[in-house]
Amino acid sequence: MKAGLRVARRWVTGAVDLIGAAAVAGAAMQDRLRMNRYNRSNTDPYRLGYREELASGRVAFAHLIRVWHERNGWSHRVLPALAEALDLGRVHNSQLSMLRNGKLASPGPEVFLALGQINQVLAAEVRGGVLGETLLQRLADHPELVAALETSALPVQDEGAPVLGPGELLEVFVGLRQPPVAFDLRIGSEEAGPLSAGLSQLFTAGQPWRLCRDQLMAAYPVEKRQRRERFAEVMAGQRDFSAAELDSELPDLRRTLARLGATGEGELGPDQFLELLRQQARVMGLVGETARDQLDLAAAIRKQLRDPSGRLVGGALQDGR
Fold first, then answer.
1. CA of 65: how far to CAs of 42, 79, 115, 216, 270, in Å?
2. Which of 13, 17, 189, 280 has most Cβ atoms within 10 angstroms of its Cβ?
3. Range of the domain at 111
4. Does residue 300 sit within a domain?
5. Closest CA to 150 of 138, 160, 137, 136
6. What pLDDT does residue 117 have?
């Protein structure tokens, strides 16, 4: 078992290194793929009606809010409490929950005012876990919020790009603006199968499922029986996650990897983990320009049966005779 875990750790480490080596070469392709996925659902009023564009923007905004919380390790109470304490607008816990799940169709202007102004305050007033004096004074009666921001207070923005304010967040919500790349983790339906295969290959380190099953199921943190059965089926190659299922599973899949000891807790961010799966799928030849044709299973089995001399094991006919 320990030997298997060491193999898994080496496998994941190698895969992470592979991402770094391929980052420059794959960056342009990833940008094209990301923009293709985005442009299929957004920003083209001649191809989509306003209802479809709004629906697509709502999904993008849900991902943005979800990633913002996950990257900072915030509970759902932090943003509403900040909005109230700093008098920046109003957003209720229930509204935020519905935004995270893409179910709030028509949030009021105060929601975007609150979230956008909080985002701007974080960008201006927090540096490396240190809150500015003005912000500290305004939060003097809220030590729990100070502690949350000192732990992490990353704003929504791309590196080197302007921080998103109320207007920009509204544009994302209605589908007129692409979310910052680092906060856009949408998974296309066509990706779900290859990503599921890459996930299984990564988590089993390419080893047979029966050798990895006990360790993986012990590391998977979910207790609900239906989800555990679904996870096991994906790992065994019996089914794939749908795009929606994989999206909802990402936080627990990252925790699984950490509990296996293959990565440190929080070592891979959501975008890094998703890119790791995409890279794994490319290496396996399941997506992109390197996608392979359907496997010739009979030829692969014959190759397995041959001994080093080229003869078939057990005295079987050679060369198909």
1. 18, 10, 10, 30, 13
2. 280
3. 44-177
4. no
5. 136
6. 97
Q: Read off the pLDDT of residues 128-153 as tens digits, 9 standing for 90 and up.
A: 889 999 999 999 999 999 999 999 89
Contact 76, 97 (CB under 8 A): yes
One-letter identity of residue 67 = V
Neighbours of 277 (CB within 10 A): 23
Beta-bridge partners for 127: 130
Spatial separation of the C-alpha atoms in residues 13 and 125, rounded to whole Å: 36
**Placement of tokens 């089926």 in the chain:** 233
pTM, full prediction: 0.58
Indicate the length of the chain as a whole number: 321
* pLDDT band per the 50, 70, 90 thresholds, residue 297: confident
Q: Is the pLDDT of residue 298 over 80?
A: yes
Task: Report the b/e string of 95-119 with b at 16+ CB within 10 A.
Answer: bbeebbebebeebeebbbbbbbbbb
Q: Which of 278, 247, 291 is nearest to 27 (CA)?
A: 278
